[in-house]
Write a structure and sequence with these properties.
The protein is mainly α. A two-stranded antiparallel ribbon has the order 1-6. It has a two-stranded antiparallel sheet with strand order 2-3. Strand 2 and strand 3 form a beta hairpin. Helix 1 runs antiparallel to helix 2 and helix 3 packs antiparallel against helix 4.
Length: 179
């Protein structure tokens, strides 16, 4: 069966909902009052219904894995270029999930910490004394890195994320998987 990634993702969401309901049903029926009538007698008895639900859960989980692997395989084989950088779509997804947010925050913090310290010193100069014999001098600081470039890098990460979202929408609607 062939489908788009968008269709597969919709099915994955549906599978997740079905799995949740089936698991809840099993959990709610792990015990019964022995003397009470079997509420599932017409369906082969509660024990049989639970066994059927467990098999259904196993089948749904297997289907979910098949869909995820098929999506990953297509994404690994589909290269995308964003702002001159070409990577497999799967690598972009990993970057977005595992790296982008931390990277953007780190770049922004480098800029903020450096700029705040420089602004603070400009507003309230401090004295620096190297030894008891020397007269104190005004503290002069110099950044150890081009902090302005990190503000630009943080903005670039944001731009890449925005472009990636658009590309993902298009790719998910057009890339096909076989399951």
């Amino acid at each position: 069966m062939t489908m788009t990634i968008t269709e597969a993702l919709a099915e994955i969401k549906l599978l997740g909902n079905k799995l949740e309901k089936k698991r809840e049903f099993v959990l709610q029926n792990t015990m019964k009052v022995k003397q009470a009538p079997d509420p599932m007698a017409n369906a082969g008895g509660i024990k049989q219904v639970i066994q059927n639900e467990l098999q259904s859960i196993d089948d749904l989980e297997r289907r979910l894995c098949i869909l995820r692997v098929a999506i990953m395989a297509v994404n690994v084989g589909s290269e995308v270029t964003i702002m001159g950088l070409t990577k497999p779509l799967y690598a972009w997804l990993v970057w977005r999930k595992e790296i982008a947010s931390n990277q953007k925050n780190f770049f922004k913090r480098i800029y903020d910490v450096t700029k705040n310290e420089m602004d603070s010193l400009a507003k309230a100069p401090r004295l620096y004394k190297t030894s008891d014999e020397m007269a104190p001098t005004l503290v002069e600081i110099e950044p150890n890195l081009d902090y302005m470039s990190f503000a630009n890098k943080a903005a670039t990460v944001g731009e890449i994320l925005d472009k990636l979202d658009g590309i993902l929408s298009l790719k998910n609607a057009t890339l096909l998987i076989d399951v």
